[in-house]
Every structure is written in structure tokens, then in C-alpha cells.
């Protein structure tokens, strides 16, 4: 958005130069409509908005920052944008003496001698400014350079020899502008000679000044003798010594505060230096907390490993104190990760990440194995709950059937669960695959899916949803040695891992057998069979119609084949193969037995309505009904028997099954012959007589 007002313009400033903190008055145009309009103020490149005091649109009072050299004054307003200036301000630093107070830190390394200490006599500090290092005089009529001109020639420099940015060119132009080249050469020789004398040491000085030193000693001895002659009381020298000690104590008292502040400043500076140098450790507890809140666990682990390698064995108390706080936060972080790892509903990737984090944090124990053990217990608990819930629901439904029958109320409320496995259109025929009275059919099958079929759908969903992740997690436990250096793998747990997976698969298969093939569990102890679940019966024929047989067999086969893809040759998968094979066999035998029963009852449906044609002559409805039963049975058997999936054995690979299937097929044809014989030699039934309908259920013999 374009600014609404003209940009601000600075036309005057007073004073025009000064050290940091100088109070200046800025004048100009369009400096803001009110204090909130002023959003920025830079003096010599430093932000001074916090100290700015807006007076009017043409006047601002502010204090300068630590800017150095000549620079611009740039105001920024909300509605005018960034301004400009026609004047500037020059900032400089004053040399603070040892007795002057300062609000900012002053580096005294260049101005205060390092050997200055308490209670120790020190030599007088010579005034360096009064002594010319070149030893020449500056005489001449040429005007000297001003400080502004020198600043323009030597940016960020100074003519003060005690500062780090000392410039020799600045010093020569300021003090020896009129000196000739020969004078400068003589001054250089003088400076070298003085430097050589300082480097030769005290012995050389004494050797070169031996005569004056001896004269001084003679003079002092003469003064001492003269004092003794004039000393009437005899203790004059002692009084002089006392006075000198008093003068020394007074001098120490005068400088005690200054030297104390210097010591405190040195201590503060050292502490700040340590904090700055080891800021990683001092900031680490707070950084750990922040990174945990953001979910950046890798950063937490990397910082902890770095701190551990640097400060785990430190002897410095402050470092040990901070490191103990780091360890405390890492322990809490480790406990949090372990608690999250116990949640079995985490995805496989999340579990792998949590295990990796705990291993990196040197968790005591084996987090991967604990996760596998917890996952197995959770899977078993899911299967148990699924079985118990459906058995309880089956009991409630049977109780509802009995109650409705006793009250002559045949209407059922639909269950809230949606039928996941609708019957095919081929099963809607008027045959024994739905061979119930119209009243019972309306009261039961129209409104709900059989509970055992819902049980099959739920328990297979649990296995397909959770067991593959459990199996992959177990495989990664034994293969992570390649990716994680230093990780020791307990190879003795291979057998334990296979046993845990076999337990889950076996429990799943036994739950299914207890619901559909209870006779196959006869070899198990009675107590164990009760744990697998005792499905209730209504006292009548079982309520699962043959129309649902392909549905639950299809679910079992799909579940078995998808789990077999994980480990086709594993011991646990053999249990699944046997379960699917037994379910297919039972379905085939049940469908054939139901078809035989339906054919035996065909004589009740013969209406003796003869249809004639040129090819077959006169025929009744009986042959068409027989053909319909056989075709539908073959259609279902085609899916169950002939269509083999990968890793599935042939259903007729076992000789006893092949023989029994042959016998049942023969009985199917014989049943039709018996039906025709009964129609020929038995009197017809009255049309008002109810038609007999027979129902063969799972595992029920004829």
C-alpha cells in the first residue's frame, strides 16, 4: 500500500557530534502526525527508536546509540515511509579514565597497566600524551587538519596510540604536519633507540647510568647524616617512616574502591565470557524442552549426545550442576517415549521411530522386545474381546427370539451394523438354501446378518489390520543390526519370536473353529475348549443358512492368503492353511448334504402342471427344480473347490475327502430317483397341506 503522507525529511540536528547516549534534538518536516506514527529512527546506522521522544511533526528528541563515525539520521513513519536527511551526526568514543564512572563496559586493557594491584607499590604512570615518541617539535605556519577532515581520510581510525584502531598516518598529520622528511627520519632513529633501551633491561640501564646512581646514593647518605645531626629527639626517622606509611594507607584507601570495581568488572567479564563460550550447555535444558514440545526428537538426541561427550566427566561444579539438570530432563523424555511405545495403536513407523529414539538414549532394557511382547498381548486381548462380544450378542439374540416367540411377536428390530456380505442374486431362489417359512424368514434373515458371520468379518479384520505390522516389527528386530551400529541382537530370541506369532495365529484359528468347526477341537482339554468360547444354541436347528457358507469361507481364505504372503513357509502359517482347508471341506460337504435334502423334498413341490412341446413332449416342473438345485450347488462348489488360490492345496488331494465327496454326489442322484419313485407310488398330498422344508446346517449330519 502506498504511503498516505510525504516522506519525512531531517533538516537540522543539535548537537552535531557526541559520544553514545548524547541527547540530540532533531528538526525537520513530516516527522509524524503523533507518537504512534513514528515507527523507526536510525542514527549512524543504529536503531534509536526506544529512546526517541516525539514532540511534534517537526521536532524529535532522542539519544544516540553506539554508532561510530559520521552517519545519517533516518526517521521512518507509518504513513510516510522511510525518510531522508540533509545533515548528519558524528559519533565518537571518549577515553574513560580509571577514576571516571561509566554506564557501559570499558576495555581497560589498553589504558590500565596489568600489574596494578592492591597493597603493592607501583611506579607512576607517565603521561604518554605529553611525551612525543619521535622526539621532534612541530614548528610551522601551515594550518592543522580538523578532526572532521581526518575522519574523512581515515575511516574507523584514531590518532590515540592507546586504542586498537590507532593510525600512524592520522598521528603524523595531526602532530607533525610541518615536519620535513629528514626530521621524520631522525624521529624514527630516536624511537628505535628508545625501544632498544627498554628491551635491554634494568642491568643495562644501571651500567649506562652508574655514575649518576652513585651520586644519588652519596646524596641520600649525606641527607641521612644531616637528618641525624638535626634530630634532637632521636626519633625523627621513625616519625618519617610512620608518616610515609600513613600516606601509603591513605593512597590505598583512595584507590580501594576503584580497584574493587575493577576486580568485580573482571569477574563479571570472565563469567560472561564463560557463559558465551559454553552457551550450548547453559541453554541446553531450555532447548530440550522446546524441541520436545515441537516434536523434534532427533535434535534433542543429537544435543544430548554432544553434551554427554563434552561434559559427562567434567570436574567444574557449575557444569556438573547444569549437566545434572540435562540428565533429569532426558530421563523424563525417556520415560515419555517409553510410555508412548506401550500404546499398541501406534503405526509401525511410529513404533520404529520410538524404538530408535530409546536405543539412542541408551534405555535400560530392550525397548524393541518390550514393544513386541506388549503388541502380542494386545492382539490376544483384541481377539478375546471380539469373541466374548459376539458370543454375548448371540446369547442376547437367542433370548430375544425366545421372548418374541412367547409373546407371538415376530417383528425384529434391525441391527445397527450394516450387512457387509450380502447374498448373491443366485441365492434368492425359492429352494432349501433359504428353506424357512415365510414368517420366520421375515422375522429373522431379512433384518440381520447371522452373528457368526459378523464374528468372522470382525476377527479377520483384526488380524489383517494388526498382525502384518506385528510380523514386520518382529522381522525388523532381527535385521536392525545392519543399520544400527553398536546394537547387540539377542539371537536366542528367534525361537521365542516364532512361538509368540504362532500363539496368535493358533488362537485366531481356534476361535474360528470353536464357532464353526467345534468337532475339530475334540482333542483339546475341556477347560481349554471353554476358554475358546462356547457358542449358544437355540435348541432348534442352527440359524446359519447355507446361503452364508461361501461368505465366511471367502473371508477365511482371503485372510489366510494375505497372511501367508508374509511368510509362506513359516510354522505359524501352516495353521492357517489347515484352517482354510478344513473350512472349504466342511462347506463342500454341507452344501452337498443340503442339496440332497432339498432334492428329497422336491415331491412336495410337484404341482402336476404338464407343459408340452415338440422336443420333449409333456413335462412337469420337477425336472426344472432339480436342475436349479444342482446348478446352484455346482456354482458355489466352483468357488470353494475348484478356484484354488496361491499356496492353497487341492481339496481332493486327500483320498478320504475324495471318496466322501463321490458318495455324496451319488446320493444326490439317488435322492432324485427316490423323489420320482415316491411320486409314482405314493398318493399326492393335498394342496392345502403345508410344504415341508428341510434345513441342513454346518457340521450337522443327515
Automatic annotation (TrEMBL):
Function, as annotated: Component of the exocyst complex involved in the docking of exocytic vesicles with fusion sites on the plasma membrane.
GO cellular component, one term: exocyst
Any GO BP annotation: Golgi to plasma membrane transport
Family designation: Belongs to the SEC5 family.
Segments for region (Disordered): 1-23, 402-435
Species of origin: Arion vulgaris
The protein's assembly and partners: Component of the exocyst complex.
Residue span(s) of domain IPT/TIG: 8-70
Transport listed as a keyword: yes
Ranges of compositional bias, category Low complexity: 425-435
UniProt-recorded name of the protein: Exocyst complex component 2
Gene name linked to the record: ORF55212
Keyword Transport set for record: yes
Top-rank taxon: Eukaryota
Keywords: Exocytosis, Protein transport, Transport
Biased composition (Polar residues): 403-424
Residues covered by the Exocyst complex component EXOC2/Sec5 N-terminal domain: 131-690
